[in-house]
Amino acid sequence: MKIYGDRQSGNSYKLLLVTSFLEIPYEWIDIDIRKGETKTDSFLQMNPNGKIPVLIWNDGRILSESNAILNFLAEGSYLIPKDNFERAKMFQWQFFEQYSHEPYIAVARFISHYLGIPEERRAEYESKQVGGHKALQVMETQLTKTMFLVGDFMTTADISLFAYTHVAHEGGFDLSLYPKILDWIKRIQSLDKFKPMNSF
After folding, report:
1. Which domain holds residue 46?
2. Quick one: 7 and 91 in the same domain?
């Protein structure tokens, strides 16, 4: 299979992590967002939404949206709960990631880490801090109760939220305010077959 993505993108890193944890072979194709490579005709034929990552399966079928690809790759593994309610909780956290976490933390990181907080985006950057801290507090509250987000076992929900949370400091978020999140990050980093973002 082929995966189109950016190695510094949290949404792409989700897939790099799951392929490492589950030892799934793949061909990686680098896409540079800042050079407009997601807006080319050839890319838009794969994903009309013009976003990474994109997976092309062995038989030519195409899948987009990072969490959909992540769950597809992890299907049947220890990362997908067999219990219906636990699986629904996994999806709950992934919806939370896309709607209440990523729009704040990932965007703040992009403005700060990649753009250097240009003056014309400073107000946007500052507005993202409030939503980002709210999302981090929700995670912190859960992680005072359980080792991982769904329970005392890892799921794809943890991969989804780890991707941008562990680099939230690059978006101006002080993770020392969230000791349970820091413990959770270390817990994931200590797992067998874990690889950091800059190692792929």
Report:
1. 2-74
2. no
**What confidence category does residue 34 fall into, taking pLDDT thresholds of 50, 70 and 90?**
confident
φ/ψ of residue 117, rounded to 5: 50, 70
- Report the phi/psi class of residue 113: left, alpha or beta, with left for phi > 0 and alpha for psi in -120 to 50: alpha
| pLDDT (average), residues 43-70 | 97
Closest by CA position to 52, among listed 40, 60, 61: 40
Alpha-carbon distance 97 to 139, whole Å? 10
Asked if residue 126 and residue 31 are part of one domain, the reply reads no
For residue 39, give the DSSP letter: S
Structure tokens that stand for 5 in this block: 């993505």
pLDDT in tens, 85-115: 999 999 999 999 999 999 999 999 999 988 8
Beta strands of the chain (E only): which ranges? Answer: 2-5, 27-30, 54-56, 62-64
Beta pairing partners, 30: 5
Q: What is the pLDDT of residue 15?
A: 98
Yes or no: say if 43 and 50 are a contact pair by the CB < 8 Å rule: yes
What are 121's two structure tokens? 């985006």
